[in-house]
Write a structure and sequence with these properties.
Layout lengths: L1 H11 L8 H33 L5 H24 L7 H29 L5 H21 L4 H22 L2 H57 L9 H14 L6 E9 L1 H8 L1 H21 L4 E8 L2 E7 L4 H16 L2 E3 L2 E3 L2 E8 L7 H18 L4 E3 L2 H19 L2 H4 E10 L5 E12 L3 E3 L1 H11 L2 H16 L7 E5 L2 H5 L1 H13 L7 E5 L1 H4 L3 H14 L2 E7 L5 H7 L4 E4 L11 H16 L3 E4 L5 H9 L4 E2 L8 E2 L3 H8 L8
Parallel strand pairs: 6-7, 9-11, 11-12, 12-13, 13-14, 14-15, 15-16
Antiparallel strand pairs: 1-3, 1-6, 2-3, 4-5, 8-9, 8-16, 8-17, 9-10
Helix pairs in contact: 2-3, 2-4, 2-5, 3-4, 4-5, 4-6, 5-6, 5-7, 6-7, 9-10, 10-11, 13-15, 16-18, 18-20
């Protein structure tokens, strides 16, 4: 039994083991990187000997045979070079290693036989070259075959055994000494080979054990990573992952290949949440996420990834071919996908999306700057191209610089001194009597000159100055209204901050109580977009104002996605029909029908209708015939300063304003 065990151990030295797949794969990967060098050494040394003996030995022996053997080595070298990055299974690795060992035996025997056959033909120097060739080549082979121990042993024995015997018994004494020297060096090299192979095998075992130890903790770590980087509702990468990926891709090479960042914001999603509840809203968001992911996965022109940034906002990261044409195609596909109907309760809901995107080549040289450019492009899309995609351009960059100057100037402004009001009358269509005046803000800056409300109000909301502006302007409006006749009302526009924050609501209540004007004369105007930030708080604010006796008007009616939702749920007194319906009411039968329907609905709800933007007497007559209650526009009067109101009222007494 003991002898059998020893024989098995001896046999194991000459075989490729198959009991450890990890070791076999590691041997194959290491060996595939070293074998080209082995063949290169063998071919170069062989051709050198061939050249030396070309003058002594027959051509077939000195040239033909070494060229044939070198060609075999070259072919094997090419094959192994191609396998260096090709993944293989453990069984295939073992099969290739065993084939290599068999081939190593054949090549070692062939080269050794060739070298010994050449030996008698040369002179002393040429024979010395053969000895050098045998010794240095076998040492090189041992080093290159160290990860395939069995092949290294086979090659060493096949080469050195006949070589040493030949030189010891058939050569000169010097050659015999060289043979002994080479055998001793080879023995030392084999000792090193055994130690390195054992360490290599131990390393593979240790690595496997380490992987096993880490697998349990990695599973927990992976789960934590997934939770930290995936959105819980949609399973899309979340906001944290979005900014990390943008930083990573941008940081690889700031001047590298095309890169684009986009922000997708849903249009009309908030009313679905408000009407059908958050559970239904979550289902719609999940469906939107699925559609966006499907579009990105199926888009072949560039690599696109979608993220959920929060609420109804999604992020987009595009790499590869991120040029304008590609991005326009991708965004158009996204818009079309989002527009498809969504099953909601027993009906279907329709929403849209607006997209802002920015290309690295067009924007600031930081990842955050790229995101900010996309965010500004989205802001521009929401204001001017709702339901479409907008790319950040040089014009937007100029607008940002202008807005930065506007912000700085507004923050440094003496608001009480620089802010003023003008007033535009709202008149009864039946008899032309003035019912109220709408207060319109004006800012005359000593630095920028006259700045329109459409420019400075959004900036004031963004930088937190809108509360101060409301306090200043409402105070001035109430001061002006105190001098008007009691039957003349005041209409005042509110911002998002005024109605969607508790602080803004309390400020409004305090100003009305201290203003010296009967609350029943005051109508506060709101818009659909201004209440979208916090629907519930906006409703509470309006109920507080109604409790004081103030009126509530819904401005720009018909321009949003779900005005009827607000009409149904808010304590309204008046609906202001947007000027876009009036522009072609004289020539467009559909426009007349729409306005008539809106006026009829308003009357059925017990509300007052006011039509904006009336500029011709023909429009006035048509609107009156359609049942509209009141109107305002240039036909009746342009906005006027406070001191002109008294004269205007005096001139309009007894005469229908804007008509006969």
């Amino acid at each position: 039994m003991q002898s059998r065990t020893g024989f098995d151990r001896l046999l194991a030295l000459f075989t490729v083991p198959d009991d450890d797949p990890d070791l076999s794969l590691a041997q194959f990967r290491a060996f595939s990187k070293q074998i080209p060098l082995l063949y290169a050494i063998l071919v170069i040394n062989t051709l050198a000997v061939s050249y030396t003996f070309s003058a002594f030995a027959p051509p077939m022996l000195s040239v033909g045979l070494p060229v044939l053997l070198s060609a075999v080595c070259a072919l094997r070298c090419v094959w192994w070079y191609r396998q260096r990055d090709v993944p293989v299974a453990a069984a295939e690795a073992i099969r290739q290693l065993r084939r290599t060992q068999r081939l190593a035996f054949l090549l070692a025997a062939g080269f050794t036989a060739w070298g010994l056959a050449l030996y008698p033909y040369g002179d002393a120097y040429a024979r010395g070259h053969v000895s050098f060739y045998m010794s240095i080549t076998v040492i090189g082979c041992i080093l290159c075959l160290m990860h395939l121990r069995s092949a290294a042993i086979v090659v060493t024995l096949v080469v050195l055994t006949p070589y040493s015997i030949f030189l010891l018994y058939g050569g000169e004494p010097t050659q015999g000494a060289i043979a002994v020297n080479v055998v001793l060096v080879a023995a030392a090299m084999m000792r090193i080979l055994f130690v390195n192979y054992r360490d290599f095998a131990d390393l593979i075992v240790s690595r496997r054990e380490l992987v096993a130890e880490q697998s349990a903790t990695r599973a927990l770590s992976d789960e934590n990573f997934r939770i930290a980087n995936l959105d819980a509702l949609t399973d899309l990468p979340n906001r944290r992952r979005f900014f990390k990926d943008v930083d990573t891709v941008f940081g690889r090479d700031p001047d590298g290949p095309p890169l684009a960042v986009g922000i997708i914001d849903l249009d009309g999603f908030k009313p679905i949440n408000d009407t059908f509840g958050h559970t239904t809203g979550d289902r719609v968001l999940t469906e939107v996420a699925g559609r966006l992911a499907a579009v990105c996965e199926g888009f072949r022109a560039a690599d696109a990834t979608v993220y959920r940034l929060g609420g109804d906002e999604f992020g987009l990261l595009v790499t590869g071919r991120a040029d304008r044409d590609t991005l326009e195609t991708l965004c158009r596909t996204i818009v079309e996908a989002v527009r498809r109907p969504y099953p909601v309760a027993t009906t279907q809901a329709m929403i849209g999306c607006s997209i802002g995107y920015a290309l690295r080549a067009k924007c600031r040289a930081t990842a955050l700057g790229l995101y900010e450019c996309a965010d500004y492009a989205l802001y521009h899309a929401k204001r001017h191209h709702r339901g479409a995609a907008v790319q950040f351009t040089d014009e937007h960059e100029a607008q940002i610089r202008a807005q930065s100057l506007l912000e700085q100037t507004l923050q440094a402004a003496e608001l009480c001194k620089e802010l003023t009001l003008v007033f535009q009358p709202i008149v009864h269509l039946d008899d032309g009597r003035v019912a109220a005046f709408e207060a319109l803000a004006r800012w005359s800056s000593p630095v920028l000159g006259a700045v329109s409300p459409g420019s400075f109000i959004p900036v004031a909301e963004r930088i937190g100055l809108i509360g101060t502006i409301t306090r200043v302007l409402l105070g001035k409006a109430l001061e002006a209204a105190r001098g008007w006749p009691e039957e003349i009302g005041l209409s005042f526009n509110l911002s998002t901050h005024d109605i969607c924050t508790a602080e803004g609501a309390l400020r409004l209540v305090a100003l009305v109580r201290e203003g010296g004007v009967a609350p029943s004369r005051i109508a506060f105007e709101i818009t659909e977009t201004s209440v979208a930030t916090d629907f519930d708080q906006a409703q509470r604010t309006m109920e507080m104002l109604k409790a004081l006796g103030c009126k509530i008007s819904l401005d720009d009616f018909g321009t949003g996605y779900s005005s009827l939702t607000y009409v149904h749920r808010f304590p309204l007194d008046c609906i202001k029909i947007d000027r876009s319906f009036v522009a072609d009411v004289e020539d467009n039968a559909l426009a007349r029908q729409l306005v008539g329907s809106l006026a009829g609905m308003t009357a059925d709800l017990g509300l007052t209708s006011v039509v904006e933007g009336v500029e011709t007497d023909a429009q006035r007559r048509i609107l009156a015939g359609l049942g509209c209650d009141m109107a305002q526009g240039y036909l009746f009067a342009r906005p006027m300063p406070a001191e002109a109101v008294a004269a205007f009222l005096g001139g309009s007494r007894g005469t229908a304003v804007g008509g006969s």
